[in-house]
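Chain X:
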Amino acid sequence: MEVGEERFPKQRQVLVLFLLVGVAVAGWESRRYSVMEETESGSFVANLAKDLGLGAGELAARGARVVTEDKEPRLQLDLQTGDLILNEKLDREEMCGSTEPCVMHFQVLLKKPLGVFRAELLVRDINDHSPEFSEREMTLRIPETSPPGTVFPLKKAQDLDVGNNNIQNYSISPSSHFHVSTRDLGDGRKYPELVLDKELDREEQAQLRLTLTALDGGSPPLSGTTQVHILVLDVNDNAPEFAQRLYHVQVPENSPVGSLVVKVSARDLDTGTNGEISYALSYSSQEISKTFEVNSLSGEVRLIKKLDFETISSYELDIDASDGGGLSGKCSVAIEVVDVNDNSPELTISSLTSPIPENYPETEVALFQIRDRDSGDNGRMTCSIQDDLPFLLKPTEENFYTLVTNGALDRETRAQYNVTITVSDLGTPRLKTQHNITLLVSDVNDNAPAFTQTSYTLFLRENNSPALHIGSVSATDRDAGANAQLTYSLLPPHDPQLPLASLVSINADNGHLFALRALDFEALQAFEFRVGATDRGSPALSSQALVRVQVLDANDNAPFVLYPLQNGSAPCTELVPRAAEPGYLVSKVVAVDADSGQNAWLSFQLLKATEPGLFGVWAHNGEVRTARLLSERDAAKHRLVVLVKDNGEPALSASVTLHVLLVDGFSQPYLPLPEAAADQAQADPLTVYLVIALASVSSLFLFSVLAFIAVRLCRRSRAAWVGGCSVPEGHFPGHLVDVSGTGTLSQSYQYEVCLTGDSGSNEFKFLKPVFPNILGQDIGRKAEGNPTFHDSLGI
């Protein structure tokens, strides 16, 4: 809180005036209750529930409480019965001093709805204080020549009670020379005066002692006494006289200590010591003695303590002027304390609501009261808050204000407000008080989670390890607390055939995605699913995002040769005429790779040949062609091993074996021998050689015979192998011979070949082509899964 002098900003201002008259509030008029002072604590004062017209228990429901201006807990409200009771004994003199009547103002505060009701408690005086004199003995010096009827002022007694309980009369002990009269100045104060009834004779009686009694008007009356010591003096026939009987003075309350308040003056017509005047306070209470002092020689009245208008607004001083002969005069000084703007406004918070729920319309945030102890313009106040805040100040009654929201608040826009309530008075200079309130806005679940992307694309290489982290999704929620705590989940896929639960899983806390099993690119290239993010608010809000997983190919499939078939059956033999030109298409190796991309790019190379340099393989399409002209010296049968390799890392490969038979213009009958027959033919010479070796050990003769027989058998076997196709006259049985397509043919053809029995040329006759449907169907299936398949076929 800061208090200072500064220019009041242009804000919403509400001029607040302290009103000294009663104000009707919702049918309630300010009521006055009364109680005798010194009444025991817990005593009944009134039933506020009945006076307010509220039912039983309604005070508690509306949070009723009693607030007094001095903030002292002198009263207590029983919320169950509505009774207003005393919380402590009340001392009227302590509360109000000499002020009459003694009224204690209080308010009754109600909530839901807000209500402020004013009331007053009149504390009635009882006669609990006796009159007291400031001195136990006072001395009077009276000239013996004083004529009867001369009046001598006496110091008055003090009674803290008021009204009839204050001092009403003075009396003195019986005396033949004096009696006491009570003088009323018209302002309620009464002074005793000693009246001379009979002339004094110093030589007869030099001094007298009398008892002065002060009586109050209580029932029963109380009294106080003091001794009056009278000294009879020689002649001093002129008493001091003041220039004014009453002085009126106004003193600002901020006057410094030592300031001159007033200067009183008296004169004495006597001379010498009888004309020397000294000034003194005739009667001074403890408060007056601590605040003012009188110069005994000059009559100047000065401050010895700071004044406070809010504590005491006026003083009454009695000053005596005494000469050296014992005569004295009296005057009164009425001092009015002038208020200055020395009190900053006060602000008291009665209730405060924080945090404030968002999205609610006009809501009461705080109830507070303002007060300024100064008077006039110094006590008039304005109250305001900053312009840029969504709050309003609404005045109620008795300087109470409510701070309310100006519409619904949004915590996501602003979660905290610092409200500065500024209260300024209209005095010169202006004083102000600032009170800072920190208001928090509580969260309501009004924001659904939002993913950082509407769709995510994740890449996963096939053959991954199970439980592999493949990526993450992330969502945020602008709410706070449990309303911003998110739970991630997999949503049911649109495709019921997709086994999503066995493919991926998601961490419900952080959105991490994991592959549950190894994926196969050749079986599943990509799949999509949706993930959801749900907060923990009530009701819960959610959102979803699309996740696409792209499976990346790994080189995990070796090339597969479609032609020639490598199924363990009789090898396929390609026929090549010896008159073929270089570049003649012998056959075409057809292969596919189940992988994709560069992993499916195939290259071909000749790995092994019976006669190197005679045949060559084109690297990109697998065509086997002659590399040079054929000659008679070239063997009739050739075995070629072709290597098919992909372009993966590491590269995978497959090999295929081709059998090539050189023929003279397709005029020699030819039936391909199975591989087993060839092996048998090669196995027979070995057997013969073994027999010869064994026979040579036994007998050279036997070896020679067996060698001769073995050579004969070998020749016969070879002749039977070459001429095995000879049959009797007539049509030869059909036999299928595979001849690879030439040029740009996209598939191989099978031809049915037979020899004509009536022709002497023994040439082949090509009857008709037969398409291999089974092979075509297999090629079609491979081509669907591999776009590079047609390239490998030369299409």
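Chain Y:
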Amino acid sequence: MEATILPLLATEILIPVAAVVGIVFALAQWLLVSKVKLTPGKTGSSKDGVSDFLIEEEEGLNDHNVVVKCAEIQNAISEGKNLLIWASGFRATSFLFTEYQYVGIFMVAFAVLIFLFLGSVEGFSTKSQPCTYGKDKYCKPALANAVFSTVAFLLGAITSLVSGFLGMKIATYANARTTLEARKGVGKAFITAFRSGAVMGFLLAANGLVVLYIAINLFKLYYGDDWEGLFESITGYGLGGSSMALFGRVGGGIYTKAADVGADLVGKVERNIPEDDPRNPAVIADNVGDNVGDIAGMGSDLFGSYAESSCAALVVASISSFGVNLDFTAMCYPLLISSMGIIVCLITTLFATDFFEIKAVEEIEPALKKQLIISTALMTIGIAIVTWVALPSSFTIFNFGEQKQVKNWQLFFCVAIGLWAGLVIGFVTEYYTSNAYSPVQDVADSCRTGAATNVIFGLALGYKSVIIPIFAIAISIFVSFSLAAMYGIAVAALGMLSTIATGLAIDAYGPISDNAGGIAEMAGMSHRIRERTDALDAAGNTTAAIGKGFAIGSAALVSLALFGAFVSRAAISTVDVLTPKVFIGLIVGAMLPYWFSAMTMKSVGSAALKMVEEVRRQFNNIPGIMEGTARPDYATCVKISTDASIKEMIPPGALVMLTPLIVGTLFGVETLSGVLAGSLVSGVQIAISASNTGGAWDNAKKYIEVSSCAIGSGAGASEHARTLGPKGSDPHKAAVIGDTIGDPLKDTSGPSLNILIKLMAVESLVFAPFFATHGGLLFKIFN
């Protein structure tokens, strides 16, 4: 095999340097955000030296007390101090720590399970064993694989938790600053929110890359030339990342949606008060939920996808010519792609924050879309460069027991098609969830005749929105597998996630803007400021749906790549659906996403029921709440969300984590392969449909709400929208009901499903040695 152009030393330098650049850039963005002071003071100056006049000054108010109020509310949401609107509040930080205590117990227990299962493959022997794919060579003992897989699992789990925690802290730091910048103009507020999202995006991308790279090099000190064992144990990193993401997504989703549904149904529909009105007892729980669900959950989720796609590619590469010939530069091709992604996203971010300035509401959504287009175009060039310098011109890739001859340009097309498929999925998602286009406008129009027609139109939209993304995923799979077998699919998934820093920045921007609007309402700021934050939030809803589309699409490719690696490791020659063992697994696997969705939806419903009852009780029994003379009992509502999320996240998590273990141990690897295939096929489609349906209902509501504002954007200010409004009208109430139905779909069940399909696949791969040796106990007994 030919040598690569990029020398080994350059590879060993470039990857950590790219990660450090990402961290430094994140810190630089954080410093710029921190310049927005949460203390009353003199107004700053704009780029051209002209003073930024505040809305309060224009309206002759200039009430600096709102600055103090914003600072107090931010501290309340973040730290839980007894300030302003919160008698005995609960902090987002505290909720995460409570959640992490429960998750930590699981993490330790599951780490022990990994060690026991994998160590028992060879009876905890310390002797070297014949390699799985090269019987003429000897590899490290199974006990070593058990130890290092356990360590990798813990590393991935801790990195995932840290990713979620950092995202939440950044969001709570930025929300009030975004509110205050909205006093100067929508452009200032946009830059603050987007820079804050970029802090999270770059920290997560860089941390995920550097921790994985360090783990590989540390493991290599023991494994030496046994790269088969080395990269098999590294798969534990992906398992740790996704298992924590599952609990973060489910727990955070239940928390935020229970509060959101309760606040909307009683506050907006029954009492006709604005969103985030401080008179609403559930308003604090709702704002805390935005951070622990939408921010911390998404951070852990996309970190898990990144870790698993990298691990899937590394496992396949280790048994291909890269691993056989010990070509470390070519082995690190997935990591070099991620490194290039950090640099490309850095350049892309500058287009939004420095090169161009947002001056009107209508420019917000196009600016976010340009981020996707610019990053995709630049990354295509970056992929070509990395492929040219890091890969030999010709090499072989493992393909179910055979070695497939592949050219480097073929791998370029695999990564590029995944990258561009992600953009297609993103734009299709935007079309079906943005109120600038006819699908959401049709849903909004259906609210004229009540909530029932709104629900019917929304469900139809969600089902229809599945079509093009599935074709995009199918074409990506076919092309990438034809060119480079399962390794091609793995790097296609990596291509879709290569711009993860930009994707996360766009995704985190939405909840930050949402919280900023809530703070504006609670601080009693000008209605014009709330209009600006609403416009930011409406664009954020669409981009959040785009982010979920990316996560689901990449999860499908990652799961398939992990499935291929599992089939190879378990020594399954073919997966024949006509075989009873496989077919029963297939049909049960296709059912699992429905079972999982039922559990999460009911959890949100049960918690929301308690929340609605509590909010109604307070409105009815505490005199003066509606008049603003009495303070609601926020703490009770927060406790309802907290208790429900901690309690209810365990059964869905147990379903996902225990299914591969039970099926593999009792029914064997063939049945497990059917379960993985079935859950992948049905899970992806339910996830896309649920996320887009919920996103469409949310923006249909905002389409009607913006109609009553003075500064509506584009479609939001159309004559059609005005005929449906204003807030409090019957069509608006129908839209709010649709939005509350969609909340658990788009923020709990839908996003969690992509974790389900990839988590089951990576768990099966990690435990494959045990299943291949000791699995299928029931069939062995009855045979």
